[in-house]
Hints:
The structure holds three protein chains of three kinds.
Chain A: E1 2-5, H1 9-19, E2 25-28, H2 37-55
Parallel strand pairs in A: 1-2
Chain B: E1 6-8, E2 32-37, H1 43-56, E3 60-65, H2 75-84, E4 87-91
Parallel strand pairs in B: 2-3, 2-4
Chain C: E1 3-9, H1 14-18, H2 20-28, E2 33-37, E3 50-51, H3 56-61, E4 65-66, E5 68-73, E6 76-82, E7 84-85, H4 86-93, E8 105-106, E9 109-110, H5 118-126, E10 135-137, H6 144-150, H7 164-171, E11 181-185, E12 190-193, H8 194-204, H9 211-222, H10 228-233, E13 239-245, H11 248-251, H12 266-281, E14 304-306, H13 317-320, E15 329-335, E16 339-342, H14 349-362, E17 371-377, H15 379-387, H16 392-403, E18 413-422, E19 430-435, E20 448-451
Parallel strand pairs in C: 1-2, 2-3, 13-14, 17-18
Antiparallel strand pairs in C: 1-5, 4-9, 5-6, 7-8, 11-12, 13-15, 15-20, 16-19, 17-19
Helix pairs in contact in C: 5-7, 7-8, 8-9, 8-12, 9-12, 14-16
Amino acid sequence: MGVATTEFVEAWQAQSAALGYEPPMIFxxxxxxxxxxxxxxxxxxxxxxxIVGRLTA
Amino acid sequence: xxNTPVLVDPTGEVEPARREPLARPASLDGRTVxxxxxxxxxxxxxxxxxxxxxxxxxxxxxxxxxPTFARIAPVAVKQQIASEAALVVEGLAD
Amino acid sequence: xxxxFTLVVKRDCPTCTLLEPVYAELAASGLALDVWTxxxxxxxxxxxxxxxxxLERSFRLGVEIVPTLIRREDGEETGRTWGWDRAExxxxxxxxxLGAGLPPFRPGCGAxxxxxxxxxxxxxxxxxxxxxxxxxxxxxxxxxxxAAYDRGWSDGLPVVPPTEARVLAMLDGTTRDPGEVLGLxxxxxxxxxxxxxxxxxxxxxCKPEYLPxxxxxVEAALDDAFCMHGVLATTYYIGPIVIVNGPVRRAVxxxxxxxxxxxxxxxxxxxxxxxxxxxRNVGGGKPQGVDRAALGNPGKYTFCFPEDEEGxxxxxxxxxxxxxxxxxxxxxxxxxxVMGVVDQDSRTPEALVETFADVFRGLENxxxxxxxxxxxxxxxxxRVFRDGGWSREDLEAALRTALDEPGHETPKLREGGLLIxxxxxxxxxxxxxxxxxxxxxxxxxxxxxxxxxx
Lengths: 57, 94, 454
């Protein structure tokens, strides 16, 4: 599965349609690059439950 | 009345075969989860934290890295992940 | 042995009408004769003929001049003559004394099936060249240009509708097989054939003679080193910039002089556009889709220009990058522009290069290192370097030295990432830097040079 920011939903849709494959994705709030460590860690904390959920049936 | 015009399709005429993702396991017990870093700035901070949270849950984690976000993963990296882990989480854009 | 004769004529040709008595003699002799008329079913009057209304017969026979007389023996063509040459007609038919009283020789006229535009139209309908692409029939009143917009084929500007006739004419511009696969076009990894490139070259407005340049540019884009997928998908400004060298520049009439990076020259404009349309249509790379550019740049419509080799004291860029001496070649660079280098004072290379270095220091962000760039040296700046006896290598070395900063291990300019060309109008002490991508070298895009074929 993949983790990306919300700015990349369209790119995922376009590439999935073209390749005929929709990998599980979760989208966390954009951006990443200019955030503090604490901000990014909070994004990861908020996402971990969903990531584990998507990895299992 | 003029003829009906016919144009030649300039596109790649994509008609992909649909592929479904592999079935998910019922639980992560005894399975290794790969975390793939694409070498995009500060993606490691996110993955470090995720790694820590998965550790806390007793989930086996291995770390992998693409040499550059600009290119698809080298075959060797893909093969290594496939042989060492059951599942993979890729820290993608941006 | 069965002899069979075929005659193709048209009323609108004085030589054809002059030969009415000869047609009557052929018919009276008893030889097997088919007569095809291209325009008037009532002509010829001396023998009965059939109207070749669609010109299919004339096309299949390869008629270029009327009248044309063809002899077949057991189905195989064994002779043909065109126009009126009594000796030839007599030799071909075995009859003597044809057209007594007529002059011995009269040139024929151009056949209707070779009038301008007809060969392509007929080839599309009746030809053996089979286009593999899907055909898209339009509704009877649907406008072709609007239809291309509606189907998402346009970059935003009108495209030339890719009719079968236009695509076949475009394919005449190359000796390569339409089915040849140049590579997989990202992002959808679709096989990119010569035919698909030709369709998009038509839409871009290319002439058939530009096609080999477009093909070379596409090959460069699909080279793994160029990393076209990344160049497309990045949030950066960049797109492919095509730099053309060699005799093909002048053969197709490219502009290397005034306004070289601007509008107004068909070859410059359409070759670059064709490459972008291939990425859009064959690869499926579109803004709001996989193309994630935050801003992009106007050069993503088209960015193609030739080096002014004739005005330069330096060898062509392509030769400095390994292409054959005197060969035509394209160099593809992932970049954008145009950043000005303005210096109307410097009379020495040493002073002028400092101005170039100063622009590089502040380019994009003072902390940027390892950057790639094209430097377009204008003729008036070229004059200063030339008078100082500087080679391209001298200029690059001086730039690198000027950009050395204590405390930085990584150079400002990536080794191998600087492309220096000379182009532009004769007046104006203004050069330009076309900066590259943030991801340069093996982790991103590497400039690719490909020779232009046939």
